[in-house]
Amino acid sequence: MHLSERIQRLEESATLRMARLARELAAQGHRVINLSLGEPDFDTPDHIKEAAKVALDEGYTKYTPVAGLPELRKAIAEKLQRENGLTWTSENVVVSTGAKQSLNNVAMAMLNPDDEVIVLAPYWVSYSEIIKMADATPVILRASVEQDFKVTPQQLEAAITPKTRMIWFSSPCNPTGAVFNHHELEAFANIVAKHEGIYIVADEIYEYISYVGKHLSIGAFPQVRDRTITVNGFAKGFAMTGWRLGYIGAPLWIAKACEKIQGQVTSGANSFAQKAAVTALTASLAPTYAMREAFENRRELIGKGLREIPGFKVPMPEGAFYFFPDISAYFGCSYNEYTINDSDDFAMFLLGEAQVSTVGGASFGDTDCLRMSYAASAEDLLEAVERIKNAVAKLKKA
Ligand code: PMP
Ligand code: GLU
Q1: Which residues line ligand 1 at a C-beta cut-off of 6 Å?
Q2: Centre of ligand 2 from the C-alpha of residue 275, in Å
Q3: Spacing of C-alpha 98 from chain mean position
Q4: Overall pTM > 0.90
Q5: Fewest CB atoms less than 10 Å from the CB: which of 72, 188, 199, 274?
């Protein structure tokens, strides 16, 4: 075997790993409740699926321009202007095969081996690995549950070094559901503006799934307009995970560099999916808002259930569809072959003993917490809570 050093440094995606283990257990006949994968349980709205079918019949079966179909780039630019206050034109938009690829494009296009990227933690699993794949160094800046999982401007300022090249975060945040408010984003923008050569990657893929009002984009602050790469996609807000479509809005030189990378790696995104994405952005957002409301109801439901489980500290998420409870009260406990030393052990215990799949917090930068997606039916969520309650009752201090 002759594997690269790069692949040996890389962790397997923890979210996808737990989803795989859950599928394997289900294939053996167990009724697994899957709360590990962050994926809306809703189907893509019909009008978007119809648009893809029409596009196929119209012959949208060929390569598109690498940066995306002109009508989609235009629809995205108009959306960014209308909803996010970002003054980009089509030229500033690059469509990709998912927000994940957009992040990878940006890392490949902008990072050098000596560069540091400050990642606001808890963070989405793939940030650290994507940064490592680009041979740069992720610097994890952790916010605790006591500070509502939000890094403060003072923390950010103190973490900046001459090697800092970028700052990456998601708001609403995967995994914590934290949402930065106007005041907090402005403070970050002011800090970045003071340091030349530092760029922001603002991952806004959960923008439509916010329970605290209108979404805010840091790139709309004029002092960081030319230093912000806004990343977004169709997976969450339009329930289009399998369509693999994402995009960036960014300064022209960054967009051009991402297009160049994409031209050598994927040649661009799927043609008829892009055509359907135009419909997603230009038609009514009523189905998106209906999904948001359903997530909000489930948040209440599972939040209440989780709070009743002894030892769970359960902050209320403000957006996205995850709970990130602190379960460290169980560290040092055991049952049968299970000993719980961190949240990964706890996730494996729940999978084996309760057949509920979740993801340990270590891969998100917090070993005390456990990520649970509530993008599942109310019935499954209630049953999951019951199963977890019964399972943890078996744990005893060693
Ligand atoms: N960013 C965040 C914060 C995510 O949760 C996800 C998961 N889907 C992505 C990016 C990647 O999205 P996509 O499916 O569009 O690649
Ligand atoms: N973003 C989702 C999650 O966090 C999907 C899985 C993945 O791409 O990692 O679970």
Answers
A1: 38, 98-100, 124, 170, 174, 203, 205, 233, 235, 241, 246
A2: 24
A3: 11
A4: yes
A5: 199
